[in-house]
Design brief:
The complex is a heterodimer of chains A (454) and B (448). Chain A is globular and about 65 Å long. Chain A has 2 domains: 146 residues, Urease, subunit C, domain 1 (Roll); 303 residues, TIM Barrel, CATH 3.20.20.140. Chain A is α/β, with parallel strands linked by helices and 454 residues long. The longest helix of chain A is centred in the middle third of the chain and has 34 residues. Chain B is α/β, with parallel strands linked by helices. Chain B has a domain of 294 residues: Alpha-Beta Barrel (TIM Barrel), CATH 3.20.20. Chain B is built from 12 helices and 17 strands. In chain B, α8 links the parallel β12 and β13.
């Protein structure tokens, strides 16, 4: 077992080293091919032929062809309409289903390894509640064993978020689940930040040891003050920049710059509406507080969780804000009907809300995100809308629809080939491409399986 | 006449309302068994294949006939299952639901005299939520804080009836053992024994040794009495030792929370040393490493489909565990250990088809017949066979798919959940607040 592990590591290293340079297009050699013999990553185009294409944007194409080259999709269509480049490596996909890689819109991938082992977790800086200067990019662990496990099931991209222990735990990142280093995997740094209103951020473990903010009033006041301070800070810098420009123009001495404050500085792009905040709350009252605060500071917002928001769904729809739905497996509160939470995605979608799914706290099984979407179908969400929620909707919500979320020419070649319905747990994912590179279908788990399969 | 009848009805209703408001009549009377025919469904029998356009006759709460066509007695209730899937009720072989926060008597590492029945809260809404997910029977276990925990209770999910109506009649007794990180953490955290795996097993061995002596004293006493010794003095009864002695006497099935390969071997060696049988390893995420050895001792496995990485001893978990172990001869069930998974065990079972290639029937067995075996009730439930309890679920789609949703759950031939009913879908729940916080319902709130 030990030997096979070493061999595996060795093979993997070569494969990764090769793949990492898909932009520089090295010549693939036979020896670098992992055991499953995936297609060479470059420089020849790859044509996936004969599969059922779920394009997301232009319907289902039976017997379709997708051609990828240089990390991008260069052709998509019915077999008859696509000319396969003569030098293309061909993958026969008859009987298979081909679709864009899935996006997990709320995960902690790269921030946790073993939940109960503290030293393997970098989920949240719990010493204070307002931590906009924490960047998950500073903790993101590219070599996390969770990442191969997740991508093997067709999840190619994810939001990485700090956990919700703080009101404002820090800046999230958008990743692709392949790359030699964190630099290659972190596609968008500081893409957004969560503002958490679930009540769990209170510092009131016990009455004797509670500290501010120990109530919802405290948390809201603290957050509001942070944004007010950031407004003042931005104004100070605006004034300085103006004076500084004037001084340059008038050839006078430059004014003294205000002291930089990383915490407040991190809030400024949000006050300027350059990035969205993710407002997470479960209960109607908390959602209202969150939405009002966002309005006060003119924040661009995405809503998150909302599992107990059933009686204000119309109001949520009227806000026109997109929603990353929380775990639909949460038990209903009070004496509500058993399916109250299961049907939240369907009820939101019915009202015209753009929804996406996240794995939330279940990072180890972020691979199961298609099944949550599938279960929402059992409770009323149209199937194509469920598939869209884990692909294109997510890409749109995170501002990446020009690159991700559908089988369209020009988009990043993040593709999944499976033997069936992407939302059904019986379906076996056969091959996965991320940024045009076929990833090895191996993980720590397959390694253990193979070691004990004799 | 009509008028007085009306008045009587209004009065009766008012009285019923008053009684129900007072909470006195919250529980319905035991339903009388009615002949019922489930007609024209796709029947997933679990033991003898799939019957297309099949029917089931239920009489006196038992399955009386199964087949392409069955007798339809006059006056029978007919449930049309055209286009539906019919399978046995799901059996959860590891649950902590409806125990409020009384899962762990974590004040001593040996508490075999704890009876989960004493904590069982039959109005907990988790029973309803899981009933709506097709679960008809659950094994409610003590938590994993103690090396030897308490004695389990098996329930049928007849939500809305009085407590004793929910108890599985004449159920075999099970006791919970644990091992590994949880006892270590709980007692080590207080600077008590055990704080290591050595300590864990030392505590267990010491308790069993004490039980051996207790049993010997009682056996000697019984022997004297049998011989007519009127002066024989009975040893002092000790509930704790009595329960432990029952393990050695084979009266309790031992269900062990256990994660690591080395611990399975240690547990099986200790069972041999003291002469008891282990019924199943629970969680058992590494059974795939020593499956042949586990199978050789006829120890079952109650495991998760794909959970891993939540603690160090769950780091080597792989989703192929269930099927790899099954192929080596281990009786495997997929269990919940959670109020959440318990609502969709069908989906968890479906994952075994993808990870390792279980057949539909094998996957279904893991949440029905195999689970029943682990509980010791496989002769009475767990498949659609003549003579078994009519614990049956009816689904809109195949239960082994993302899209399967329970439409009706029958227990002992009576419909206890019907999604088409207005409101909660519960024919026997007559108002009143349900209890239960709807929490996760696992061993110790966080770490399994």
């Amino acid at each position: 077992m030990k030997i096979s592990r070493i061999v595996f590591t060795f093979v993997c290293t070569i494969a990764l080293a090769l793949s990492a340079s898909s932009q520089t297009r090295p010549t693939a050699t036979a020896s670098a091919k992992p055991a499953a013999a995936p297609a060479p990553s470059a420089p020849v185009p790859i044509a996936i032929r004969g599969g059922k294409l779920l394009t997301i944007t232009h319907g289902v194409i039976e017997n379709g062809v997708v051609v990828i080259e240089g990390g991008k999709i260069i052709a998509v269509g019915a077999a008859a309409s696509v000319t396969i480049p003569r030098n293309a490596h061909i993958i026969e996909a008859a009987g298979m289903t081909v679709y864009p890689g899935m996006i997990d819109s709320m995960s902690h991938l790269g921030l946790t390894e073993i939940s109960a082992v503290e030293m393997t977790n970098d989920m949240v800086e719990a010493s204070d509640e307002i931590m906009p200067h924490m960047h998950v990019t500073d903790a993101f662990h590219a070599e996390s064993e969770l990442i191969p496990v997740t991508r093997m099931n067709g999840v190619t991209n994810a939001i990485v978020s700090p956990s919700s222990r703080d009101t404002l735990p820090g800046q999230m990142a958008f990743i692709q689940l392949d790359g030699r280093s964190s630099d290659e995997m972190l596609l968008v740094r500081d893409i957004s930040m969560p503002l958490n209103f679930t009540g769990q951020q209170r510092r009131n473990e016990s009455f004797a040891s509670s500290k501010y903010p120990s109530t919802r009033m405290g948390m809201a006041a603290q957050l509001r003050q942070a944004f007010i301070d950031a407004q003042d800070y931005a104004q100070k810098w605006d004034e300085y920049n103006k004076k500084s420009a004037d001084a340059t123009k008038d050839k006078k001495d430059a004014p003294t710059a205000p002291k930089r404050d990383l915490k407040l500085e991190a809030l400024v792009p949000y006050l300027q509406g350059k990035k969205p905040v993710l407002l997470t709350a479960e209960e109607p009252s908390d959602i209202k507080v969150a939405m009002r605060l966002a309005k006060e500071f003119n924040l661009k917002a995405i809503l998150g969780d909302l599992v107990y928001s059933r009686n204000i769904l119309d109001e949520i729809a009227a806000s026109k804000l997109p929603v990353i739905v929380g775990s639909i497996y949460d038990a209903p509160k009070g004496d509500e009907r058993y399916d109250t939470v299961f049907s939240i995605p369907a009820e939101l979608q019915k009202r015209g809300v753009k929804i996406a799914f996240g794995s939330w706290g279940d990072t180890h099984n972020a691979r199961n995100i298609p099944y949550a979407a599938g279960y929402a179908v059992a409770y009323g969400l149209p199937w194509d809308e469920a598939l869209k929620a884990v692909t294109l909707n997510a890409a749109e919500i995170w501002g990446l629809a020009d690159k991700l979320g559908s089988l369209d020419v020009g988009k990043t070649a993040n593709l999944v080939i499976s033997n069936g319905d992407p939302l059904d747990m019986k379906t076996d994912v056969k091959r996965v491409f991320i940024n045009g590179r076929e990833i090895p279908m191996r993980s720590r788990q397959t390694d253990l399986r193979d070691a004990y399969s004799h | 006449m009509l008028q007085s009848k009306k008045i009587f009805m209004v009065l009766a209703l008012a009285v019923m309302l008053l009684i129900s408001m007072s909470g006195l009549a919250q529980m319905s009377p035991k339903p009388a068994p009615v002949d019922t025919v489930i007609k024209n469904g796709t029947i997933l029998t679990v033991t003898h294949g799939v019957i297309h356009n099949g029917s089931i006759l239920i009489r006196n709460g038992k399955i009386a006939e199964v087949g392409q066509s069955v007798t339809v007695p006059p006056g029978a209730v007919v449930i049309d299952a055209t286009g539906k899937f019919v399978m046995p009720g799901i059996i959860d072989s590891h649950s902590h639901l409806a125990l409020d926060s009384d899962v762990n008597e974590a004040t001593s590492p040996v508490t075999p005299h704890m009876m989960m029945l004493d904590a069982f809260d039959y109005t907990d809404k988790a029973i309803y939520h899981t009933l709506a997910g097709g679960v008809t029977t659950s094994l409610l276990l003590h938590g994993s804080a103690n090396m030897i925990g308490g004695q389990a209770v098996i329930i049928k999910h007849k939500f809305g009836l009085d407590r004793d109506e929910l108890l599985f009649p004449n159920a075999p007794r099970s006791i919970k053992f644990a091992s590994g990180e949880n006892p270590k953490r709980v007692y080590g955290g207080r600077n008590q024994l055990p704080s290591t795996r050595m300590g864990n097993f030392a505590v267990q061995r010491a308790a069993l040794q004490e039980a051996r002596e207790y049993m010997r004293d009682w056996d000697a006493y019984d022997e004297k009495v049998k011989k007519g010794d009127k002066d024989a003095k009975a040893p002092k009864r000790d509930l704790k030792l009595e329960a432990l002695a029952d393990i050695l006497r084979g009266k309790l099935m031992v269900q062990i929370h256990c994660y690591r390969a080395d611990e399975f071997l240690n547990e099986m060696a200790m069972a041999k040393e003291f002469g008891y049988k282990i019924r199943a390893f629970h969680h058992g995420l590494e059974v795939y490493k020593v499956a042949d050895k586990v199978a050789a001792e006829y120890v079952g496995l109650a495991t998760f489909a794909d959970w891993w990485g939540y603690k160090h001893e769950a780091w080597d978990a792989i989703p192929w565990n269930a099927v790899m172990s099954m192929r080596k001869g281990v009786t495997v069930s997929i269990k919940s250990d959670s109020n959440d998974f318990a609502r969709r065990l069908n989906q968890e079972a479906a994952k075994t088809m993808r990870y390792g290639g279980a057949t539909e029937e094998e996957a279904l067995k893991m949440i029905t017949l195999n689970a029943a075996w682990i509980l010791g009730i496989d002769d009475r439930v767990g498949s659609i066979e003549v003579g078994k309890d009519a614990d049956i679920t009816i689904w809109n789609n195949h239960p082994l798919s993302s899209y399967g949703r329970v439409e009706k759950t029958l227990i002992d031939g009576t419909v206890f959940f019907d999604s088409s009913l207005p409101g909660l879908g519960l024919p026997f729940w007559h108002g009143g607040a349900m209890s239960g916080a709807g929490g996760f319902g696992n061993d110790d709130g966080e770490v399994r």
